[in-house]
Amino acid sequence: MNVITLAETAAGRTELVGGKAAGLGELIRSGERVPDGFCLTTTAYERGVIPEREVAEAYAALGGGAVAVRSSATAEDLPFASFAGMQATLLDVTGVDALHDAIGKCWNSLHGERAVAYRKANDVDQETVRMAVVVQRMVDAAVAGVLFTANPVTGRRTEMVVDAAPGPGTGVVDGTADADHYVLDGSGYDDRGCLTPAQLAELHRAGERIAAHFGTPQDIEWAFDGDGTLWLLQSRPITTLFPLPPPTDRPQPRIYLEFGHVQGMLRPVTPMGMSALRVILAGILGSFGIRAELVDIGGRLYADLTDLVRDPATRKRLVKLMAVDFGPRAQAVVTHILTDPRFAPVPGRRSRSGGFGPALRTAPRAVAGIVAALARPEVARVRLFAEIDQLRQRAAAGPAELRTAAERLDFVEAQDPSTRYDRIIWPVVAGILTAALPAELLKGVASQAELNTVLGGMPHNVTIEMDLALWRLAERAGAHRELLGTTPPAELAERYRAGTLPEIGLAAFLDSYGHRAAAEVDLGVPRWAEDPTPVFAAIANYLRVADPEQAPDRRFARAAAEAEATLAELVSRARRRRPVRGRLAGFLLRRARVLAGLREAGKFAGLYPLRESRRQLLLAGAELVDDGRLDSADDIMFLTLAEARAAVRDGVDQRALVARRRETYRRELRRRHVPVALLSDGTDVEAALAPTAATAADALRGVGAAAGTVTGPARVVLDPATARVEPGEILVAPTTDPGWSRCS
After folding, report:
1. Residue 515 has pLDDT above 60, yes or no
2. Which pLDDT score, from 0 to 100, does residue 640 have?
3. Phi, psi of 69, deg, nearest 5
4. Are strands 714-716 and 293-297 parallel, antiparallel or unpaired?
5. Residue 129's closest CA among 71, 79, 199?
6. Contact between residue 431 and residue 599 where contact means Cβ atoms under 8 Å apart
7. CB-based contact 525:518 (threshold 8 Å)
8. What's the alpha-carbon Rg for the chain, to the nearest Å?
9. How far is residue 742 from each of residues 207, 466, 474, 497, 524, measured CA to CA in Å?
10. Strand bridging mode 714-716 / 160-166
11. Helix extents (H) in 376-423
12. Mean pLDDT over all residues of the chain?
């Protein structure tokens, strides 16, 4: 089957007709007005010869004349990748010979550099993609453009966006035209630009119909001809939208705050990891006396803050709460939401989530814990690490009596790492407070740069200690510099597991830190003890440090010495100028030198029980593989506990479900922007805010990870596992967490 009419194409025939033709076929089947045309199928492409007679007959059936010839690859107009502009489109093609030539150009464009690179970036198998070609009668367009049935910038599903320009619309699609821009919400249309209010209303109605037919927001190309008739030229999913929050039975809009950016984590969480993370975060919030509904949106964990925002007693404290650990982005979002009339306080209303009411019960423990840490910081620090060591020992012992998958799932379900946080969290909070409060006390006396210096070279930070241990490991490995510096890290990891690498002390390092990883809060992520590839990448980077003064241990020692000297000078100055405040600030800063480094300790402690839970789940997964209900042991990480129990107890084959979940997970791994806050209509609150400053179109905007200014080459890193960073380079990354920091 080489040639079929567009009316014969449909969504279920993508492998034969490609994505673009399938979308056009669906528009025709739903009753929309689409220019007549035909499709040269992937069968012809596979044969490698244009069926000239069949193409000529189909062209004649259209009446000849000018046609548009457009690529329609099988990997095109996908839910996660539009391929817009990646393959050929030729307009105003006239005559059979010109048509044959245009088809050849479409075929060749499948393997153009941009198309190949785009497929690689979106993890599309290059070997399986094939090309069909759409041929349609040209529309003599008076005005044309694109219609997005949801706002692609803000994510708001209650708005449509139209960009339009006179003529055929190619300039609008490729971004070269000076287009008129419209935002439609169905409430009325201005008489401006190249579209009339009636045309805008017709586009809005068409967008509603098409989005409803496809069941997802659409990116639609359209044209009005000289008679004012609307023609639809293409429809494909909008690929940039973040998923919607789950529906609720509450009619008012809701606000959700994302937790991952606190840990520098853009990647999605596996379903099994999500269940564990909910328990942990609920426990942490509970320690502060806060209850908030935690929801999964796009594989990321969000807290529903709506009731807290609308509660008159709690809304005033939210911005300050964001400053504790969420940072300036979350503060800006919450500040904006507090001015939104849709989230106005309701007098007499009490938060469904309990607001800060439970804090009254938590307050005595909090005050006692914080005061004790301030009074005797060294004692608090020693007790905290003793508790962490007990956690480590309990987790390392493991329940040897577990024998079956059902028993292992029972064990995992019984684990609640949050129950231990109350014994650790208050010294950590004391450290955060002692680091934050002096800035207010020392306004006009000390600069922020001086305060940053005092808080540098911080002792008792488990992540810094891990970095220094890794540096010592790299020093011991210096005799094998050539091997470790030139062999791919994944190959080194494989050789280490096979026992064919020289001894460098890695086993001892992994004994202490093998429970860590990038995105380590996700139970579903392999730990370094399972796959030490990132550790070998970090060793290779450390082996490139040629200047002894840039060695991490020396840099840390210099920072610590400078911090102590600056602290002494700053306290002396403050006491002279503001005696009372100076004494208090000195007291807090000295405590900060002992306690602020404990900030990482809470998460570090929770990783030990997570490691044991992961081990038990993998053993349960292996049993399900033996029973034919999963394909690999780590498939269990793409199930919930209830779904894993269904496989164990009821014999449910979960392989198809896992395959779907893995595909969604891979798609979300490619996402480069995760909203800090979402509204229930999909609005990315941060994106909806007016920009604070003009920024060049090709500029990268972000947040500096340390105080000060430095000049040097910038290296953009997306994956720390294989990153190569040279000494003196500036690391630029989407986000970082402790699992990333070794590549810096």
Report:
1. yes
2. 94
3. -115, 120
4. unpaired
5. 71
6. yes
7. yes
8. 30
9. 48, 9, 12, 21, 21
10. unpaired
11. 377-397, 405-414
12. 86
What count of other Cβ atoms lies within 10 Å of the Cβ of residue 688?
17
Q: Take residue 108 and report the two structure tokens written for it.
A: 């060749």
| Spatial contact of 26 and 235, defined as CB atoms under 8 Å apart | yes
Return phi, psi of residue 479, to 5°: -65, -20
Query: Which of 613, 518, 615 has the alpha carbon at shortest distance from 276?
Result: 613
**Which pLDDT score is estimated for 126?**
58
What's the half-sphere exposure (Cβ side, CA atoms, 13 Å) at 434? 29
Q: How far is CA 225 from CA 22, 118, 139, 140, 144, in A?
A: 24, 33, 7, 5, 9
Coil vs helix vs strand at 362: helix
Residues 6+ apart with CB under 8 A from 151: 157, 159, 160, 161, 183, 683
203-211 mean pLDDT = 97
Yes or no: say if 674 and 258 are a contact pair by the CB < 8 Å rule.
yes
75's enclosing H/E stretch is: none
Say how far apart CA 80 and CA 668 lie, in whole Å: 9
Residues 150-167: tens digit of each pLDDT: 999 999 999 999 999 998
Whether 524 shows a pLDDT value over 70: the answer reads: yes
Tell me if 609 sits within 8 A of 416, measured CB to CB.
no
Angle at 97 between CA 92 and CA 99, to 5 degrees: 40
Per-residue DSSP letter, 729: P
What SS3 state is found at 401? coil
**Residue where the block lists tokens 């003009």:** 694
Tell me how far apart the alpha carbons of residues 503 and 467 are, in angstroms, rounded to a whole number: 20
* Packing angle, helices 405-414 and 641-650, rounded to 10: 160
CA dist 399 and 320 (Å) reads 43
For 151, 257, 623, the CA distances from 158, given in Å and listed in that order, are: 8, 20, 47
Helices (H), 243-341: 271-287, 306-310, 315-325, 328-337
Q: What's the per-residue H, E or C state across 549-602?
A: HHCHHHHHHHHHHHHHHHHHHHHHHHHHHCHHHHHHHHHHHHHHHHHHHHHHHH
